[in-house]
Write a structure and sequence with these properties.
alpha/beta; two-stranded antiparallel ribbon; 16 helices; 14% strand; globular
């Protein structure tokens, strides 16, 4: 009798264990519950079609430098109103704070500089535009992050203070971007730095959405290399200027090859153009680059094959993604080719549900041109952007 009771007990225990094992297997087979990313997705809807305001609070070429006079006259309320009338829904407001910061005291941001930032942000918001506050320093600072841990800590101190300053603004319409186009070659180090700085931003502004990107100039391949941050309220972005040989032709700051390409690199590309492009450059390696462009079938299908991967990456991680820079240097590119590239990239981004921010408002890539301080919209570019 005891033996029979013991056997029944063992059978029940074994059945229970098998049931638990089956439950564990079922749970293991199910994907983990998606974190709450609803605020980031909802707010990304405010970043569907925007424009960058360059050379205003960053990349300042004015001989007066980063002065109040420059800030108040280079981009005016009339410019912001024009941006709104052209149909944009947000501005990527680039700032270079480095000239105003003191070594070892990066959390002590000067009050007069903050007042100028407040004035600009207020003007943008008052024009019914969302705003991305994009920290956009020169290359020399960005390169220090590659090896100087103290610079990383100072940068985190700065962002904690800046985020706290803007914490009272509307989190539905004000976005905080960690760093424009990181220049670190080591993607793993950048991921660590970005995580550190994003945590500092979150301390300063608990409710605001952060915008993050990959290393090496925020290229699309660096986005695909990333894994999302340990923060659910983040939008991820990439910049798209491919093929660079076309979009930056004649832009001498973009590499020695561009020095020679000033008579027009066509878009789309075709093998028939190879010989003519080769004749424009004296270096064998540069001739290889232009030959690759000619034969690589750069057109809408090639562009879509790359941008579609960004959408797949975003779906895999259940995160929103945007493209907050794209454009063509207008000084040398043929107008019709430039418009075709802008139209192709913009329409492909929209096809894949990716918001965009064109580079730039009235600079050398501009959607508007300024003469004697007054901006005039370029209707052909607006048409290419679907904003006619």
């Amino acid at each position: 009798m005891r033996y029979h009771q013991g056997t029944q007990y063992l059978r029940r225990l074994l059945t229970l264990l098998l049931s638990l094992c089956g439950l564990c297997t079922t749970l293991a087979a199910q994907p983990p519950a998606a974190p709450d990313r609803e605020p980031a997705f909802r707010r990304a809807a405010h970043l569907k079609h925007g424009v960058n305001t360059s050379h205003w609070f960053s990349q300042v070429y004015d001989p007066r430098g980063y002065t109040r006079e420059h800030f108040e006259t280079f981009t005016t309320p009339d410019d912001i109103a024009l941006i709104h009338r052209m149909g944009f829904d947000h501005i990527r407001f680039s700032i270079n704070p480095v000239p105003f910061l003191h070594s070892g005291q990066w959390d002590n941001i000067p009050a007069d500089y903050l007042a100028q930032l407040d004035k600009a942000v207020h003007t943008i918001l008052s024009s019914d535009l969302a705003v991305i506050i994009d920290v956009h320093p020169e290359s020399d600072f960005k390169r220090t992050l590659a090896s100087d841990n103290e610079a990383v800590e100072q940068f985190a101190d700065f962002w904690r203070a800046l985020a706290a300053h803007f914490a009272s603004t509307d989190p539905e319409r004000v976005f905080l971007e960690v760093l424009n186009e990181p220049e670190l070659q080591d993607g793993y180090r950048w991921l660590g730095i970005q995580s550190r700085v994003a945590a500092a931003i979150r301390q300063g502004a608990p409710r605001h959405t952060i915008i993050a990107a990959g290393a090496r100039w925020s290229a699309i391949d660096e986005l695909l290399f990333m894994q999302p941050l340990d923060d659910t309220n983040v939008i991820y972005n990439f910049h798209y200027y491919s093929p660079h040989i076309f979009t930056h032709q004649g832009a001498t700051w973009a590499g020695s090859l561009q020095h020679y390409l000033k008579s027009g690199v066509p878009y789309p590309s075709s093998p028939e153009m190879a010989q003519r492009l080769q004749a424009q450059v004296p270096d064998d390696l540069d001739r290889l680059y232009v030959t690759r462009y000619a034969y690589d079938s750069w057109g809408p299908a090639r562009i879509e094959s790359e941008i579609a991967l960004a959408q797949l990456w975003a779906r895999r991680y259940n995160v929103p993604v945007t493209c907050n820079e794209f454009g063509v240097y207008r000084n040398f590119a043929a107008t019709e080719d430039r418009l075709a590239w802008i139209r192709d990239v913009r329409s492909i981004l929209e096809k894949h549900g990716i918001g965009w921010t064109m580079w730039d408002y009235a600079g050398s890539f501009g959607v508007a041109m300024k003469n004697d301080g007054k901006a005039v919209a370029d209707p052909a570019v607006l048409k290419a952007l679907g904003l006619e």
